[in-house]
Structure formats: structure tokens, C-alpha cells
Write a structure and sequence with these properties.
Layout: H1 5-14, E1 22-23, H2 24-30, H3 37-45, E2 57-58, H4 71-80, E3 85-86, E4 89-90, H5 93-96
Parallel strand pairs: 1-2
Antiparallel strand pairs: 3-4
The structure holds a DNA duplex (13 and 13 nucleotides).
Length: 104
DNA sequence: AGGGTGACCCGCT
DNA sequence: CAGCGGGCCACCC
């Protein structure tokens, strides 16, 4: 690994376009570690930087997942970007989902 | 240095 | 749809 796992998670998360989302598992896989989804969540939970749109990262089943500022806040942010959510679940999940690739 | 922890995931009941 | 259990991983005492 040429960089810290956490660093790579952040860099990858920054690439998620506004109004689109990705999943913990997706990011883990993009980093070459399909089983590290949990670790990805842990990394994002410690993120303080506002440059990292960690609210655009959701669970692989389409549910919103957690957020250090509170799930409600996460839903709010997503909504303001045009991502429709219903009952803690993202509508049109398959559509707004993005595939990321690593360059790091 | 070893074990606990968590913004997860998947399969099964 | 809801619960439960086991697995996996990086991070922080």
C-alpha cells in the first residue's frame, strides 16, 4: 500500500459527484479489499474534513447507514442534492449509484 | 502487544 | 419484512 487505508478512502470519496452516491462495500472493493467495508465505515466516521462528502456513502442494500452528525442530517444533505430518500432508504438507488476506480 | 469497537455485509430463519 | 449470527478489517486504547 503506498498510502494509508484511511487516506485512500477519503480520496475516493471526494470523487463522488454531487447528487450521486456510492457504498461502503463499493469503496472497499475499489481499494482492492472487498471485505473491508466495515473498515471503510470506521474511516469515514472519523472524518472531520468538510471536503470529504462522506454523506454520499451509503450501505450496499440502499439504506442510508450511519453518520457522525446523525442520520437525519445525512438524509437532509442528500435531499438537498436531489437524492430522494424514503423510509431511510434511497430511491432509485441503482440509478444514482456510481462506480469508482482507484488511481492511488 | 492484544483485544475491543464500529457509519458493514451476507446468508439463513 | 425483521432478527440473528458469523466473518472481515483498520483503528484506538
Amino acid at each position: 500500500m503506498r498510502k494509508d487505508f484511511r487516506f485512500r478512502v477519503f480520496e475516493l470519496t471526494k470523487r463522488i459527484p454531487r447528487g450521486r452516491v456510492s457504498t461502503y462495500a463499493e469503496i472497499a472493493a475499489a481499494l482492492g479489499k472487498p471485505k473491508a467495508a466495515r473498515a471503510v465505515g470506521g474511516a469515514l466516521s472519523k472524518n472531520k474534513s468538510k471536503d470529504v462528502p462522506c454523506h454520499r456513502v451509503i450501505a450496499s442494500d440502499g439504506t442510508v447507514g450511519g453518520f457522525n452528525r446523525g442520520t437525519g442530517e445525512k438524509i437532509k444533505l442528500l435531499g438537498s442534492e436531489g437524492v430522494r430518500i424514503s423510509s431511510g432508504r434511497v430511491r432509485d438507488f441503482q440509478t444514482v449509484r456510481v462506480t469508482l476506480k482507484t488511481n492511488i
